[in-house]
Amino acid sequence: MSASLVRRSATRACSRSSPSLAAGIRVDGSRRRSLASSCKLRSQHASSADKFPYKLADFPPERIRNFAIIAHVDHGKSTLADRLLEVTNTVPKAKKGGKNQQLLDTLKVERERGITVRAMSVSMIYTPIGRREPFLLNLIDTPGHVDFSSEVLRSLLAVQGALLLVDCTQGIQAQTLSVLDAAHKRNLSIVGVLNKIDLPNSDIPGTTGEVTALLEPQDPLLPVSAKTGEGVEDVLEAIVQHIPAPAPKGSDALAALAFDSWYDEFKGVVSLIAVKSGYIKKGDKITSAFNDKNYEVSDVGILHPTPKSLDEALGPGQVGYITCGMKDPRDAYLGDTFYRTGVPVPPLESFKPQKAMVYAGLFPYDSTQFPKLDEAVRKLTLTDRSVSVQKESSAALGVGFRLGFLGSLHAEVFRQRLEDEYGSEVLVTKSFVTLKLVEKDGSETTINTPADFPNPSELMNRRITAVLEPMIRATIIAPDEYTGPIMELCAEHRGEQISFSYLDSANNSAKPRVSLIYHLPLASIIGSFHSKMKSITSGFASFDYEEAGWAPSKMVRMDILINGKSVDALSSVVHRSELEREGKLWTARLKEVVPRQQYEVIIQAAAGSKIVSRDRLAPMRKDVTGYLYGGDWTRKEKLLKKQRTGLKKLKRIGNVDLPPEAFYQVLRTGSPKSSAKD
How many helices (H) and strands (E) would you count in the chain? Predict the structure, then answer.
């Protein structure tokens, strides 16, 4: 046994004898900043001197384990990943008094919001108890929010097993069921993990019963505390024993699956690959099965946890990254197969990102910055392939993009990443859900922007027989005491109940929880639905949904008029029952942000020729008689008459131009009175 393995074995034995040594520790400020900087895996340039301290040739496929962590949001995935990195000595244990935190959540938006939005990969070395040979463990930490489910699905392409993590204080949640179903469809081996057993309100027996009902009889179920490190080494043992090794393809020809990619300023496109067969090393000539282009591999390495360049080859079953001089982000395709030039192999996978359901316009805060925004969007969509991009122009906002997202949180995170990672100040229009128009001859037209939706008279002229909107099948799990408020909320959002059942009525030790399934219009949950549900249930409800086809709906386009002129960037399509409420909301917001003029400004919300809401912005009046000190009253009247005539002329020829600050405030979901730069 090598000296390094002896030292790690001694450290693990010391941790068993003293549980406090196994817990994470906080580092001082300078060390923490250095560690956070080193963990920016997607933007760091790996130094040639930063080498992996092992030989990959020593890890045949039977001593490799590729696995993911799947769970509902906020169940402790990132914390468990931190402890796994510490126990395997991939990162040094923190000093006494603190712990390593969010090592794989490298994005600023992830740390601020406390959620994972990007699936991250890291390789670890672990020697099981009672064995001398070390194992290579490749972990992929996946997001938990439904808006980033595409990240979960692509992460499952490269693994043979998954840790199903469940919070003992919350039990089974809606997203837990959906991600577990995706793992079962790929025939992945599952290791159940019950987290947060150290908390006083954890219900270990109740949660054990719930999770056991979802697992196969042979699947292990382990209680752990990711915060303290208790039981984490048992998880590593279960990974080695229960998750199968990657199966060889039975061919020596190179076949490497690209399941992730990002852009590096120094190297260009970096592709994360899982080698299914053959070997790949620096200098190899490879071909992409997607675009049929040839490349020369310039760098090969693994993430441990930062990029570690290798002088040797990646072999069967191993996961790592390559750079090959690929400069155009559009050439990097998720699910692509790389093979040795001249030795083609059949494609390994056919991964298709989920279809965008929510659309929004994206425009630069300063119209002269469009080229910079164009480059930033191309690079950012390389790491988020579920975003669809199409250029569009607006009379009010200039040239921009029409982007498609999986949900409203997805859109908000994308905007924040543009600002954090690329310094792009942007304006995002109100989210719009795709609609379909059914004409008399049976043909269907897809509508992705409010401007393309006809007004009432055009609907009649085109003989539109139906307007279809996308529906979802929503699963809501919450304590029984919140059933009434949840039903009222769903009814307010045009929901139709499909089923109602008690999730754990047989468990007398836990508070009964209910599972409600609703048929809801997708448009009705975009916006404040999630925040309202969290509010009425004190944060105890979980929500997940899947597509459920299309249904006829009474939708109408609402235009915003300022002194009779339509502002195209503020148009929207709403349900007829919500038209008046939405109209009053938007005119009230605009009244707060439209600059006052020397003439009266009328703000209206209209559906075709019908005005549904109206607000008036009083003019700024100049005191034209202020300098008069006396004289006949006709002098004062003459000046006032002249002012009135001038104001009428000014109103006829004057345009009310909304500055970017006004658009920024009115397009936000919050109050327009708040600062635009908070």
Answer: 18, 30
pLDDT at 649: 53
Spatial distance between the Cα atoms of 345 and 241, rounded to a whole number of angstroms: 32
- Could you say which DSSP state residue 451 is in? G
Pairing of strands 64-71, 161-167: parallel
Phi-psi sector, 160: left (phi>0), alpha (psi -120 to 50), beta: alpha
Retrieve residue 553's tokens: 């709906």
Distance CA 203, CA 197 (A): 8
Lowest mean per-residue pLDDT among 103-117, 135-149, 166-180, 630-644? 103-117
Nearest to 154 by CA among 382, 414, 334: 334
| Residue 512 DSSP SS3 | coil
pLDDT tens-digit profile of 388-405? 788 888 776 778 888 887
Answer whether 467's CB lies under 8 Å from 553's CB: yes
As a whole number of angstroms, the distance between CA 663 and CA 587 comes to 13
Most confident range (mean pLDDT) of 145-159, 210-224, 381-395 is 210-224
Predicted confidence at residue 100, as pLDDT, reads: 58
Question: Do 50 and 308 touch, CB atoms closer than 8 A?
Answer: yes
pTM score, two decimals?
A: 0.63
pLDDT at 59 over 70: yes
Q: Which residues contact residue 129 at a Cβ distance below 8 angstroms, ignoring those fewer than 6 apart?
A: 233, 237
For residue 236, give Cα distances in angstroms to 57, 129, 135, 243, 649. 22, 10, 10, 10, 79
Helix or strand (DSSP H, E) at 548: strand 542-552
Structure tokens belonging to residue 631: 């004289």
In 365-488 the beta strands, taken as DSSP E runs, fall at: 388-394, 398-405, 426-428, 432-433, 435-439, 444-447, 464-479
Q: How far apart are CA 322 and CA 297, in angstroms?
A: 7
By the 8 A CB rule, do 335 and 283 touch?
A: no
Q: Which residue has the higher pLDDT, 339 or 112?
A: 339
Angstrom distance (rounded) from CA 476 to CA 520 = 12
Burial class (CB in 10 A: 0-12, 13-18, 19+), 403: buried
- What whole-number distance in Å separates Cα of residue 614 and Cα of residue 274? 59
Q: Looking up tokens 């630069």, which residue turns up?
A: 364
State the DSSP H helix or E strand holding residue 221, giving kind and residue range, or none if neither: strand 221-223
Distance between CA atoms of residues 503 and 105, nearest Å: 32
Backbone angles phi, psi at 582, to 5 degrees: -65, -40
Mean pLDDT for the chain? 77
